[in-house]
Amino acid sequence: MQRLEAPMRRHAPNEEVDYLIVGVGSAGGVLLQRLARAGFRVVGLEAGPFWDTERDWVSDEKGSHQLYWEDMRITGGENPLVFGANNSGKGVGGGSVHWAAFTPRFHPSDFEVYTRDGVGVDWPISYWDLKPYYELLELEMPVAGPAWYPWGDPHGYAYGAHPMGGVGNTLIRGCTKLGIPVSAGGPVAILSGSRNDRPHCIYRGFCIQGCKVGAKASTLITHVPDALRSGAEIRDCSMANRIHLGKDNRVTGVSYFDRAGREHFQKAKAVIVSGYAIETPRLLLNSACAGYENGLANSSDTVGRYLMAQAGTVVLGRFDELVRMYKAPPAHALTEEFYETDPKRDFARGFAIQTVGPLPIAFAKQMMAARGSWGWGMRRQMMDYNHWAALGLLGEILPWPENRVTLAEERDQWGIPVAHINFDLHENDKKLIEFARNKTEEVMRAAGATETAHEARYAHLVGAARMGEDPAKSVVDRYGRTHDIVNLFVCDGSVLPTQGSANPGLTIQALAARTADYLISQGTTVFSSDKRDLTPPPVRRELSPPGTHGKGVPRLG
Amino acid sequence: MKTDASTSKHGDRFPLDPRNGEPLAPRAQPGYYPGFSTLSQQSFWDAATREVVRKRIEEIPPLRFFTPNEVRLMEIVCEHLLPQDDRDVAHRIPILPFIDERLHDKRTPGYRFEVMPPDGAAYRLGLQAIEQMARTAHGRNFLDLSWREQDVLLKSIHDAEPLPGAEEIWARMPIHRYWGLVVQDCVEMYYAHPRAWDEIGFGGPAYPRAYMRLERGEAEPWEVEEKRYEWRAPNDAVSDPSVEEIAAHKEHPPAGQGGTH
Predict the structure, then answer these.
(1) Cα A117 from Cα A109, distance rounded (Å)
(2) Do A492 and A273 contact (CB within 8 A), yes or no?
(3) Where are the domains of chain A?
(4) Using CA atoms, how far apart are residues B83 and B105, in angstroms rounded to an integer?
(5) FRET partner for A507 with CA separation of 20 to 30 A, picked from A4, A490, B159, B197?
């Protein structure tokens, strides 16, 4: 049970703060904590509520819609993405409240796919730049997993792996039969043993409905409490609608609507946009002004472009014996054996295979898509729910300029234009998905499934404000500073140039910790100077929330 | 048993016992987990979850979005999309009031396909299409068709090969998106109900008590073992395909509403 007792500092209405962060989710929560701990005056605007997890969250699929961003978005293209429960959070903690919490690292190859494979684009940083932050965040969340993880840059996890549930067993059995190495019981940001004031997992299976237990990491419980104790302020139910540009090509603050619909303006010396891959470009585009007619910080015309989702086709398998897949976390076991480019295949890059544990409503919707079930056929399939297991492939879809977020004519409840999203698959994406689906079905059959079905879908959202060296081809630099405006930053999943086949949550938080270290090392120069210093900052382990390091905390030698 | 079946104006709507072809008597709890009751465990649930489930059972929202004519049509459409004739009347699960509530409150799932009208308008257009198809194909109102004729008409939407009569509507609204919208709403409302959890053997809320038996599909001490029985869909239903027909199912562009990994 989580109780956030910390009294919150309130800044005066006209006070100019140092950093104003738009969006207190995976990245925003970490930034807020780091910057407050380093002594900056910092305010976070969050469109959704500040949760009281015991009062607001339920063990119930239909009762959990409030966790998801369900304001209107218009989706199109040949392969339209769906949003809401699928990939978009709302409220303090953002997506980390409803994620399944798989936390694999990206592989070293993910940072140089253009150099290696001639596809996508290279990152302006390497895996080795991010590695210290992976290690840090794996302890801060913390991540449970096996002592030896063989893929990418091999490493181990300090916190013990979880015991197996029915779906995890399916993946282990199928992979082992085929000689495919598999990681069991993690890596997942769910406590397998209690730590500090957080209890361990109780295997109730409602991870993506928000972890009432407090075992699954969300920035709401991992970083926000320390942020508040360090003097940060969070204004919940505050919907940002415009970033303001002042003299000297510097932003001056953000206007937003409070819960009563009143508009306010918060002054800030610097602004960090952390709204994730749809709301971040939407806010930048909606902040168009003289000098930035196509959207703020969009001289490159890349704001909103190169949006990515990962292929997330779900393969369902029926077993003669009972599985009861509602028990244990849906994120439970995976293999990254097919992650890297294989010259024997006719496409670049690769995929992972992971456990998925849909609860009844999600499963019924999958059966509708996978088998066309309805009527008595739906009732029959659902009576068999306990005989089914679900595995999901997680495949890399490459960045394409036409996969983009733009503003629609239609407006939301605040009068802000809603996002329009266009998404098309390309040749490499389609080949990869087909191969991965067949491989996942092979694993499911090897595990003993007598029937299989699949539902094509997508998971996660990244890109749409990508980082890069070239200001003509990217929105932000390697630390998240916009090329166009020195005191405007983007820090969230939207800065990812490519996405690998790893769930992005850990990488997003690691990038946020790195951006925070950079900002802290810059001191006050961000607020007054036009200088762009790209010197790497030192890694500040001492900024971790209390209880991350030290006595009683496992350490890898 | 005879009474219900023979007085039904829509004929043979009851699932059948494959051994003798006789209708199976409606039950308080269909499914393979006789005696299983998630609600019997609610004293082990947290207060917020208890309350959200209590409200769902006790406070059925009033119908405000659909007009009375649309209500009559939608009720029958819901009975085809998620038939409950194997449940006795006292244990059926309300679906339409919750769909009406969502549309009245203008709640969305967080997106709209650009080729689709807003959800409320899509529902209204769909009902118009169903009515036009009934008149063109049969010269009668949808409500005056036999149960089987209604089921066949709806299956033509499912198959994206609609009976004639509503071409102009389907040109404006992709038929498989309309079908996905309505079926997803129906399953969301039905499988949100504890009676449906009991039917399929889903353990339901487990906080703060926890699940203890994770492996080999083992039941918790308070869950029950599966006891299967054979049943055939009613003679007048066309919604329960054979294994071969399932295998031939054509994949439509993803709905992807689950929210999984």
Answers:
(1) 10
(2) yes
(3) 17-543
(4) 26
(5) A4
Distance CA A38, CA A35 (A): 5
Number of Cα atoms under 13 Å in the Cβ half of residue B87:
19
Interatomic CA distance for residues B157 and B130, integer angstroms: 9
B2 CB-near residues (< 8 Å, 6+ apart): none
**Degrees to nearest 5, angle at CA B144 with B141 and B145:** 95
Among partner residues B206, B215, B249, which is closest to A371 by beta-carbon distance?
B249
Taking an 8 Å cut-off on Cβ atoms, the answer to whether A358 and B260 are in contact is yes
| Residue in A86, A166, A331 nearest the CB of B217 | A166
Of A61, A203, A375, the CB nearest to B214: A203
Residue A273 CA to residue A285 CA, distance in Å, equals 12
Whole-model pTM?
0.96
Count CB-CB contacts under 10 A for residue A554.
12
A534: Cβ contacts below 8 Å, ≥ 6 apart: A477, A478, A479
Minimum CA–CA partner of A84 in chain B = B110
Chain-chain contact of B246 with A202 (C-beta, under 8 angstroms): no
Say if the Cβ atoms of A70 and B110 lie within 8 Å. yes
- ipTM score assigned to the predicted complex: 0.95
Q: In what order do the strands lie in the sheet with A74-76?
A: A404-411, A417-422, A74-76, B112-113
Residue A310 pairs with which residues in a beta bridge? A459
Q: B256–A71: do the CB atoms touch at under 8 Å?
A: no
Per-residue pLDDT of chain A (557 residues; tens, 9 = 90+): 345 566 899 999 899 999 999 999 999 999 999 999 999 999 999 999 999 999 999 999 999 999 999 999 999 999 999 999 889 999 999 999 999 999 999 999 999 999 999 999 999 999 999 999 999 999 999 999 999 999 999 999 999 999 999 999 999 999 999 999 999 999 999 999 999 889 999 999 999 999 999 999 999 999 999 999 999 999 999 999 999 999 899 999 999 999 999 999 999 999 999 999 999 999 999 999 999 999 999 999 999 999 999 999 999 999 999 999 999 999 999 999 999 999 999 999 999 999 999 999 999 999 999 999 999 999 999 999 999 999 999 999 999 999 999 999 999 999 999 999 999 999 999 999 999 999 999 999 999 999 999 999 999 999 999 999 999 999 999 999 999 999 999 999 999 999 999 999 999 999 999 999 999 999 999 999 999 999 999 999 999 999 899 877 776 65
Q: Extract the tokens encoding A197.
A: 């004031």
CA-angle at A450, arms to A447 and A451, nearest 5°? 110
On chain A, the residues whose CB falls within 8 A of the CB of B92 are none
At residue A125, what is the residue type? I
Q: How far apart are CA A493 and CA B66, in angstroms?
A: 41
- CB count within 10 Å of CB A526 equals 20
State the amino acid at position B208 in one-letter form: P
- The shortest CB-CB distance from A459 to any of B83, B184, B260 is to B260
Nearest CA in chain A to B29: A383
- So where are chain B's domains? 15-247
The CATH T-level fold of domain A17-543 is: FAD/NAD(P)-binding domain (3.50.50)
DSSP-derived 3-state class of residue A62: helix
Helices (H), A394-461: 427-446
* Cα A59 to Cα B205: distance, rounded to the nearest angstrom: 5
Q: Where are the beta strands (DSSP E) in chain B?
A: 112-113
Alpha-carbon distance values, A556 to A136, A148, A161, A548, A549 (Å): 12, 11, 15, 13, 11
Contact across the interface for A456 and B256, Cβ inside 8 Å: yes
A55: left (phi over 0), alpha (psi -120 to 50) or beta: alpha
Identify whether the C-beta of residue A405 lies closer than 8 Å to the C-beta of residue A281: yes
How far A455 CA sits from the closest chain B CA (Å)?
7
CA pair distance A438, A421, nearest whole angstrom: 29
Structure tokens at A173: 């059995």
